[in-house]
Design goal:
The structure holds 2 protein chains of 2 kinds. Chain A is 45% helix and 6% strand. Chain A has 10 helices and 8 strands. In chain A, the strands form 4 sheets. Chain A has a two-stranded antiparallel ribbon with strand order 1-2. In chain A, a hairpin with a 5-residue loop joins strand 1 and strand 2. In chain A, helix 1 runs antiparallel to helix 3, helix 1 packs across helix 5 and helix 8 crosses helix 10. Chain B is of the alpha+beta class. In chain B, 67% of the residues lie in helices and 13% in strands. Chain B is built from 4 helices and 3 strands. The longest helix of chain B has 32 residues. The two termini of chain B are 22 Å apart. The chains are: A mainly alpha, B alpha+beta. The interface between A and B is medium-sized, with 22 and 20 residues.
C-alpha cells in the first residue's frame, strides 16, 4: 500500500513520506509547538523501519492518526475549540472511510502510483500558466495565443524571460512545499492554484474557439473577427480590430471598392493598428480626403515597401493595380503589379460575395 | 472493556515510572512499557506524553550522540518529576483500591 496518497509528492523513503504527512497534520500548531512534537520523529521512524519489513503504516497506523495521538497526548488538543476538534475528527473519519473504499477498488493502487509521476510536468505547467495569467491580466484578456505578451515592446524577449521566471519560481516553490509550509502559505498556494486552474480552463476554451476560426478561414469561409470591446474616449478613433491590419471591401457586383471610409456605431473613425508602424521598410500611404486631410480610416490601406527593400517582404497579401485599386485575391495578373509591389506567393481562395 | 481508554488516564504515571527506573529516549520508553505488559500503548502517545511532561517541568532531557544510529534525546526525572510520580502513585493506589472494592462487591449488589 502506498502511504502517501494525500501528498502526491515523491519521497526517497517511507520514513520521509510518513513524516511529511505527520508534519502536515500538525501544520496548524505554532512552529515552536510543532518542532517540540516532531523534533525526533524521523529518528523514531527510522528506528522502527529498521525493525520491520513492511510499510510504517502497518506498524504505526495511519500517519494522520499518529499525528492526532501525538497532538492529544502532548496536550495540544486544548488549543483547539472542542467544536473544531469535533468537526476535524469527523472529517478525518470521513476521509479515512473514503480512502478505505477507494483502496478496495481495482485500479486504485496503480493510479495512486501513477499520479505522483505527473508532478514534475504539473510544476512546469503551473509556472507557465501563471505567466499566461499575468499576460491575460496585463492585456485585459484580449490575447489568447500560447505566448505571453507582457510588454508592448520586445515582446519575445520579455515573454521568454517571463516563462523562464515563472517556471523557476514554480520549481522553487515546489522545493519549499516539500520541506513543509505554514498554514497561511499553504492557503495562499491553494488559492493561487485554483486561480491558475480556472484561468487555464477559460483560456483553453478561448484558444480552442480561435483555432476553429482559423480552420474555417483556411477553408474559404469567413471567420468571425475577434474585436476589442473597450469603448474609446470621445473623439478618439476606434481602434484595435485585433489581428486585422487591412480591410478590403467589395461591392454587390463583386468589384473591389477603394477609399471606403469606415466608422463605428458612434461615428468614430475605425483605425486599424498597423503592425508595421515601426518598420521603416514599409511605407503606409494615407488617402487624401476632399478637405486635404489625410484619412486614417480609408480602406484598403496602401502599404508599399520603401525603395531598396528586398523582395519577399510585402506586408499585405493583396496588391494594387496601376490605377491604385486593389486587385482581387487570387486573380492578380502579375504584369499589372508595379515593380516594387510583389504578388503573393500563395493566392488566397476567393472571398465569397460578402463584403 | 477497552483498555486503551484506561491507559490514557494512567499513561503519565506509567511513563514517569519507566523513566524513574532508568533514563530513556522515546522509543526506548515505548519498548519498556510494552515489555511491562502495556501492549496497546501507542508510539505517538508516549512521545507526546514525554513532551508534555518535559514542558511541564517534570523531566530533564539531554542528547546522546550515537555512533551507529541517529542522536537520541534521553529523558530523566528531576525532583519535580519525582514528586509528581509519588503523588500520582498515591492517587492510583487509592483509586485502584476503591475500584477493586467496588468490583468485588458488584456481583453481590447485582443479586
Amino acid at each position: 500500500m502506498n502511504t502517501t496518497p494525500l501528498l502526491g509528492a515523491e519521497f526517497d523513503s517511507d520514513v520521509e513520506a510518513y513524516a511529511a504527512v505527520v508534519r502536515g497534520a500538525l501544520a496548524d500548531l505554532s512552529a515552536a509547538q510543532r518542532d517540540l512534537l516532531v523534533e525526533d520523529l524521523e529518528e523514531h521512524l527510522t528506528e522502527i523501519a529498521a525493525e520491520i519489513d513492511g510499510p510504517l503504516a502497518e506498524r504505526l497506523g495511519d500517519p494522520l492518526t499518529y499525528a492526532a495521538e501525538l497532538r492529544s497526548s502532548a496536550g495540544f488538543d486544548a488549543l483547539r475549540s472542542p467544536r473544531r476538534a469535533r468537526v476535524h475528527g469527523r472529517l478525518n473519519d470521513l476521509r479515512a472511510g473514503v480512502v478505505r473504499r477507494l483502496e478496495a477498488q481495482r485500479g486504485w493502487a496503480p493510479t495512486v502510483a501513477f499520479v505522483p509521476t505527473l508532478r514534475p510536468a504539473w510544476i512546469l505547467l503551473r509556472g507557465y500558466l501563471a505567466v499566461m495569467l499575468v499576460s491575460a491580466v496585463v492585456n485585459d484578456n484580449n490575447r489568447y495565443g500560447f505566448f505571453p505578451h507582457l510588454t508592448s515592446h520586445l515582446v519575445e524577449l520579455t515573454g521568454m524571460a517571463g516563462i523562464v521566471l515563472g517556471v523557476s519560481a514554480s520549481l522553487w516553490l515546489d522545493r519549499r512545499q516539500q520541506r513543509g509550509l505554514g498554514r497561511f502559505a499553504r492557503g495562499a498556494i491553494i488559492l493561487a492554484t485554483a486561480a491558475v486552474v480556472i484561468f487555464a480552463i477559460d483560456w483553453a476554451l478561448h484558444v480552442q474557439s480561435l483555432d476553429q476560426g482559423y480552420d474555417a478561414s483556411s477553408q474559404g469561409e469567413l471567420a468571425p473577427v475577434p474585436m476589442a470591446t473597450a469603448a474609446p474616449a470621445d473623439g478618439q478613433p476606434t481602434s484595435d480590430l485585433t489581428s486585422v491590419s487591412n480591410i478590403y471591401a467589395y461591392g454587390a457586383d463583386g468589384q473591389p471598392l477603394a477609399n471606403v471610409r469606415l466608422y463605428d456605431q458612434d461615428g468614430h473613425p475605425i483605425v486599424l493598428t498597423d503592425p508595421w508602424a515601426d518598420d521603416p521598410s514599409v511605407i503606409r500611404t494615407h488617402v487624401l480626403q476632399t478637405d486635404g486631410q489625410l484619412s486614417d480610416n480609408a480602406y484598403p490601406l496602401k502599404r508599399e515597401l520603401a525603395p531598396g527593400v528586398l523582395a519577399g517582404m510585402t506586408p499585405d497579401k493583396l496588391t494594387y493595380d496601376e490605377a491604385g485599386n486593389p486587385t482581387v485575391f487570387g486573380s492578380t495578373p502579375a504584369a499589372t503589379v508595379p515593380p516594387l509591389l510583389l504578388p503573393t506567393a500563395a493566392p488566397l481562395p476567393p472571398i465569397s460575395g460578402r463584403p | 472493556m477497552d483498555s486503551s481508554q484506561l491507559l490514557k488516564g494512567v499513561l503519565d504515571v506509567a511513563v514517569l515510572a519507566v523513566v524513574a527506573d532508568q533514563d530513556g529516549y522515546g522509543y526506548d520508553v515505548v519498548r519498556r512499557l510494552r515489555a511491562a505488559g502495556l501492549d496497546d500503548v501507542g508510539d505517538a502517545s508516549v512521545y507526546g506524553t514525554l513532551r508534555r511532561l518535559f514542558q511541564a517541568g517534570a523531566l530533564t532531557s539531554y542528547v546522546v550522540p550515537s555512533d551507529e544510529g541517529p542522536h537520541r534525546k534521553y529523558y530523566g526525572l528531576n525532583p519535580s518529576g519525582r514528586d509528581l510520580l509519588e503523588s500520582s502513585t498515591k492517587t492510583w493506589m487509592s483509586f485502584a483500591q476503591t475500584m477493586n472494592l467496588l468490583l468485588q462487591h458488584e456481583p453481590e449488589a447485582a443479586k
